[in-house]
Structure formats: C-alpha cells, structure tokens
Design a protein that fits this description.
There is one protein chain. Helix content is 43%, strand content 14%. The chain is α+β, with helices and mostly antiparallel strands. The protein has one domain. The protein has a four-stranded antiparallel sheet with strand order 1-2-3-4, covered by helices on one side. Helix 2 crosses helix 3.
Length: 104
C-alpha cells in the first residue's frame, strides 16, 4: 500500500468533495480530510507543481536552504511525507469501489 501524502503530492489530479469530506485523487483514490487540510494540501501541491515546471524550463541548482521559498517548500513536503505513519490502509485510504464501512 502507498501512504497518502505521496499520492496527494504526486497523483495526477486532486478534487475535494465537501459533502463526503474526502480528497479524490485521479478520480479513483479517496482520502478522508477536513476542508482546511485539503486546502493546505492543494496549496502545497500547486506550489510544488509550479516549482517543478520552473525547474524543467530553467535547469539549475536546487536551493534546499530553509530560508529560501524553494527550500522551505521542499522541506515541508519531505517532512510531511516522512512523518506519515503506516500505510494508507491504516489511515482510511479507500478507492471508489470500497463501499463498506471500515470504521474510519
């Protein structure tokens, strides 16, 4: 199983469904989330996408210094991914075919 944060940061498309309280990843993976957390993840994801687009068109040294915007963003995402415990199965990860209540 893949943990949630890598899916959220590197999956193709994210959409938040406020009625169900889930982030849909690529239209088939769903991760439970509050609206606030979903917005934070989406903002970080947008910043990461912009940075990657810039790096592709302007190759060069990556600034990992936490005092730079680039470094702060990269460290934040690495810290989030590294801090996630267990697999997505342990944290209410399910796909659209999963209709049973798994206690989450």
């Amino acid at each position: 199983m893949v943990p949630n944060y890598p899916l959220l940061f590197f999956g193709e498309k994210l959409n938040y469904d406020p009625t169900e309280g889930v982030i849909n990843v690529d239209g088939f993976v769903r991760v439970r989330s509050s609206r606030h957390v979903a917005q934070l993840v989406q903002n970080l994801r947008n910043e990461l996408d912009q940075l990657l687009e810039y790096k592709i068109s302007h190759p060069g040294i990556t600034r990992w210094d936490r005092n730079s915007k680039e470094g702060m963003l990269l460290h934040t995402i690495v810290d989030l991914i590294s801090s996630e415990r267990g697999t997505s199965q342990d944290s209410c990860y399910y796909d659209s075919d999963d209709q049973d209540d798994d206690g989450c």
